[in-house]
């Protein structure tokens, strides 16, 4: 979750939503394609801020009244209460939660009992669908067998570990604090607790060789996780890493190097039975049944609804996007005085929503329905020509196109931005 909030209109203090939101939710249900509802909980605390991180995170344990680690669970529970009132007051039909995701920061810096308490409050307020996916991010050195057992007993089903690399000098460059030997132990504890496991990896760090990256991928596969995310390192302005690149003390990332590493990862993952379903995500799925995909993230990519709780958290309800006050103290103060923690709101116009649908759709192995391109200003005429051209260039899957889906080939995944620009006509 990036730390810079977008521009938008002020959000009302009572948190009420336009009548159109409730109408859209009802209409979707009536057509047999109901909009799913999820919860994201942002926990902004970290033991150390990594040099590449642009998320809304803080290393201090106490950031003011209602924003300390000890009081944070109560503050978030207060937002969930507020959310229920705002939704009911806006006559938005109640829906149970399909997925819940605790992100950060490092959620597991909070006691497991606090995470379970927040989840329990969400269950009491909204209800949770049987079989729901409930995930927490974690650093490998921030958990124990006991804490993971407590989380599993409290309803968590999945944990996503920030492994990033298996090579000590790469971890050091990234300012990661955990030791690589902690990862197998943490994964083993999660398995013993009955939790599914996902591993997050980063490739393209300056100084990381192709063999370093192979070592990381093979180490991750040796742990047999259910799911793997692999992200190319992005140098963000305002980060320690970004400042080092500007000063020339650290080399910038090399797109060709990152492409080579992506291709290596895809080959090794596929050989081990992992199938890509989003450009940066692979699920262990040798029988192609769609299992172990991160359902929470799929809800984002498929433009479903979610409430984001916590400082700086973003939410989406039937076309309306809104976001909370960024600093934890300001966020907590708004809740303490009975007003919405949300400070901004927007409803993207048709052009923006079309661009977003194209951007997200072509990242998925399920693809973008070609019918969606009819939403373009020219009715999709240019996009259809571009599809034909990109099939010839080896960027799009021809068979998928014949079946009415825009799906990138492996080469196309490397040039995703170019595909989006050509389909969206800019």
Could you write a compact summary of the structure shown?
By secondary structure, the chain is of the alpha/beta class. The protein is built from 16 helices and 15 strands.
Describe this structure in words.
Belongs to the anaerobic coproporphyrinogen-III oxidase family. HemW subfamily. With 426 residues, this protein is α/β, with parallel strands linked by helices. It has helices spanning 19-30, 72-89, 112-126, 145-153, 168-173, 182-193, 210-222, 240-247, 255-271, 295-301, 328-336, 350-361, 381-392, 398-402, 410-414, 416-424, and strands at 9-10, 37-43, 97-104, 128-138, 158-164, 196-203, 227-232, 274-278, 281-284, 305-309, 314-317, 320-324, 342-346, 368-369, 405-406. It folds into 2 domains: 9-305, pyruvate-formate lyase- activating enzyme; 349-426. The chain is 40% helix and 19% strand. The strands form 3 sheets. It has a 9-stranded mixed sheet, with helices on both faces. Strands 1-13-12-11 form a 4-stranded antiparallel sheet, with no helix packed on it. A two-stranded antiparallel ribbon has the order 14-15. Strand 3, helix 3 and strand 4 (128-138) form a beta-alpha-beta unit. Helix 2 (72-89) runs parallel beside helix 3 (112-126), helix 12 (350-361) packs antiparallel against helix 16 and helix 13 (381-392) packs antiparallel against helix 16. It is globular, with a radius of gyration of 22 Å. The mean pLDDT is 92.
């Amino acid at each position: 979750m990036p730390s810079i909030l977008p521009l938008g209109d002020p959000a009302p203090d009572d948190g009420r939503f336009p009548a159109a939101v409730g109408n859209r939710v009802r209409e979707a249900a009536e057509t047999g394609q109901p909009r799913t509802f999820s919860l994201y909980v942002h926990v902004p605390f970290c033991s150390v801020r990594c040099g590449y991180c642009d998320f809304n995170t803080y290393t201090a344990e106490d950031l003011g009244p209602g924003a300390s680690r000890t009081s944070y669970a109560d503050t978030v529970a207060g937002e969930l209460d507020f959310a229920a009132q705002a939704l009911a007051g806006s006559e938005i039909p109640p829906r149970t939660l399909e997925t819940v995701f605790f992100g950060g920061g490092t959620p597991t810096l909070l006691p497991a009992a606090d995470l379970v308490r927040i989840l329990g409050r969400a269950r009491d307020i909204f209800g949770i669908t049987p079989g729901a996916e409930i995930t927490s991010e974690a650093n490998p050195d921030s958990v124990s067998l006991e804490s993971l057992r407590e989380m599993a007993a409290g309803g968590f089903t999945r944990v996503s570990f920030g492994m990033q690399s298996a090579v000590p000098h790469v971890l050091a460059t990234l300012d990661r604090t955990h030791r690589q030997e902690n990862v197998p132990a943490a994964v083993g504890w999660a398995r013993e607790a009955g939790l599914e496991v996902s591993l997050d990896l980063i490739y393209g760090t300056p100084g990381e060789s192709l063999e370093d990256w192979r070592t990381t991928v093979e180490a991750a596969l040796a742990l047999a996780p259910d799911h793997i995310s692999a992200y190319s390192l992005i140098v963000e302005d305002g980060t320690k890493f970004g400042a080092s690149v500007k000063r020339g003390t650290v080399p910038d990332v090399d797109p060709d190097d990152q492409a080579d590493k992506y291709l290596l990862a895809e080959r090794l993952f596929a050989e081990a039975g992992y199938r890509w379903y989003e450009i940066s995500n692979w699920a262990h799925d040798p029988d192609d049944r769609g299992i172990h995909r991160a359902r929470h993230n799929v809800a984002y990519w498929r433009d479903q609804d979610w409430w984001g709780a916590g400082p700086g958290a973003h939410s989406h309800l039937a076309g309306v996007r809104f976001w909370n006050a960024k600093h934890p103290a300001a966020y907590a103060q708004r809740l303490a005085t009975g007003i919405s923690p949300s400070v901004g709101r927007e409803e993207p116009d048709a052009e923006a929503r079309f661009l977003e649908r194209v951007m997200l759709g072509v990242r998925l192995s399920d693809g973008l329905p070609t019918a969606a391109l009819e939403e373009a200003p020219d009715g999709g005429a240019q996009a259809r020509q571009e599809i034909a051209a990109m099939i010839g260039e080896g960027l799009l899957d021809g068979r998928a196109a014949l079946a009415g889906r825009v799906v990138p080939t492996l080469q196309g995944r490397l040039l995703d931005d170019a595909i989006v620009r050509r389909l969206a006509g800019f």
